Amino acid sequence: MSTAWRAELLRGARASVPASPGIIAWGLVTGVAMVKSGLPVPWAVLISVLVYAGSAQLASLPLIAAGQPFWIVGLAAIVTNLRFVIYSASLRRWFEAYSLRRRAVLGYFTGDFTFAMFMQRVTREGEFAHRDAWFLGACGINWLAWQISSIVGIVAATVVPSEWGLQFAGTLALLALAIPA
Question: Would you state the pLDDT for residue 106?
Fold first, then answer.
């Protein structure tokens, strides 16, 4: 990795730091909601790391808690994440020169905020060198903030009294809206 590549990676990481409080709040909410919906802690951690899709996770939780069939839960998650098809189409121009492996990694880490930030940058500047590094840096900070806060929420939910149930997650959701504001 060249010095210029690393500089863009750090530039992207710094650009995404302002979004961290909101991501942390939603990660906590999602972590608590997963456990309070009845998911065992190991499953909740696995879903957080592998799926990395807060909206789909939150949309699926009531269905899982209600014992809906897997195909309904899966369909809800797919519909919730259809926006990533649009994101992919929009990002294609900027990443098509990269290898399939690199594009797959960038696709996994893509989030709403980082997509919007990247599109703003290319709208302002056009094509720039080491776009993959900038995008990976921005997405990496968001991913790390999400995983840490989600896992903290998962663990914290195990000590929250059961009678608080999902109401506790609802309270956290309100905090998630208030903190970034």
Answer: 94
Decide: 117 and 142 in contact? Cβ < 8 Å: no
- Whether this prediction's pTM lies above 0.90 is answered by no
Nearest to 133 by CA among 26, 45, 29, 4: 4
In angstroms, rounded to a whole number, what is the distance separating the alpha carbons of residues 60 and 89? 25
In the block, which residue shows the tokens 């809206």?
Answer: 177
Distance of CA 40 to the CA centre of its chain: 21
Domain edges within the chain:
3-178
Which tokens in the block code for residue 46?
């696995």
Contact 24, 168 (CB under 8 A): no
Low-confidence ranges of the chain (pLDDT < 70): 161-181
CA 18 – CA 121 distance, rounded (Å): 16
CA distance 92 to 4: 23
Backbone angles phi, psi at 39, to 5 degrees: -75, 135
User: Cα(81)–Cα(84) distance, rounded to whole angstroms?
Assistant: 6
